[in-house]
Amino acid sequence: MTNFPLILLLEINRSKLIFSVIKNNEQNDFNTIYTSEAQSKGIENSRISDYDKVFNIIKENIFKIEKRFNYTFKNVVLILDDFDFTFVNLSGYKKLNGSQMLRENIIYILNTLKSYVVQNETKKNIIHIFNSKYCLDGKEIENLPIGLFGEFYSHELSFILLNKNDYKNLEKILEKCNLKITKTILKSFIEGTCTIERNDNLETFFQIQINKNSSNIFYFENCSLKYEQKFNFGSEIVINDIEKVTSIKRETINRFLKKTSFKKDFGDDDLIEEEFFNSENFRKIKKKLIYEIARMRIKEISEILLTHNVNILNYLNNTKVNFLNFGDKSQCEPFKDLYLSNFALSNKIQTKEIEKIPNEFFNQKTGRIVHFGWNKEAIPVTKQRKSLLARLFDTIFS
Question: Residues of the chain whose pLDDT is less than 50?
């Protein structure tokens, strides 16, 4: 038994379930003291396809963790990645006419926008709400302008929604395991906050992940997650193209890529060395051809994810930095310069490679957000009606 409460984290992503236990101490360090993984059987196409399979996997792992720590968990923090989320960005307004901005004005805007989303997205649950932008008299400001005087105020909120049935299935499974969901968090939100902390508190950026068979891009603006999109292709598609055009075996291609430094100025006489053709007949394949195949496909990848993506065109002029993470180093490293240059929008945006976020740092950030919140997360407050007795006391003592 521990003197400090243990916090259980459950991450559900494309390929696995990750169970982590973090421990809070007097310094609020949120240290990771346990992590285990299990295959995400019963989850297909971004939703639960087999209720019993998912339940049994979670139940078995929770039992194992509780036995290990001699500790009964009542709550769980849910971190979701492989689900379909909806992103909605709305703005509310208040005419001030020279009067002072009050807290009640902002609460009204937040509740009004939230009510609009709830009424129009009846089949979805709100997972996150972020304060993405504040403008007073046409000028964007960093903090809520409570107490300031002005003529016109606008407030932008970013909503992240999850299908109600997907959430109910997860909720019921965890309830059967005697666990209550204390907070549901989008994984990319945590990743973005980690990137902010590791890059001098940079507030606005794109972050792109290139895995072997999948990719995703998300956008942070003013420390608020505003959009994310996933794609069912990754770096493997480049290797597929090379294999198809050259008709040489994948093993030969991989051996060649592993030991070759790629550059755009290959000459016509630069051929793939015979030493790489271990199990097939040597063929005269130009290195320049391999480079051009990769260049064209990577250019197309950058266009689909970023430069020609109609879902994010409005955000391209707002940022000067892209962060690029290669989930499959072996296939991306030979073409790293091609990836970096194509995602730089003709040098208009600086593109930086970032490493995978360490599990310890990711969990620590999660613990802090659960415990302290995030400065850009909005929690709309519904004004409660006072009872007759409460109003009587207010009258007497005011």
Answer: 1-2, 382-384, 392-393, 395-398
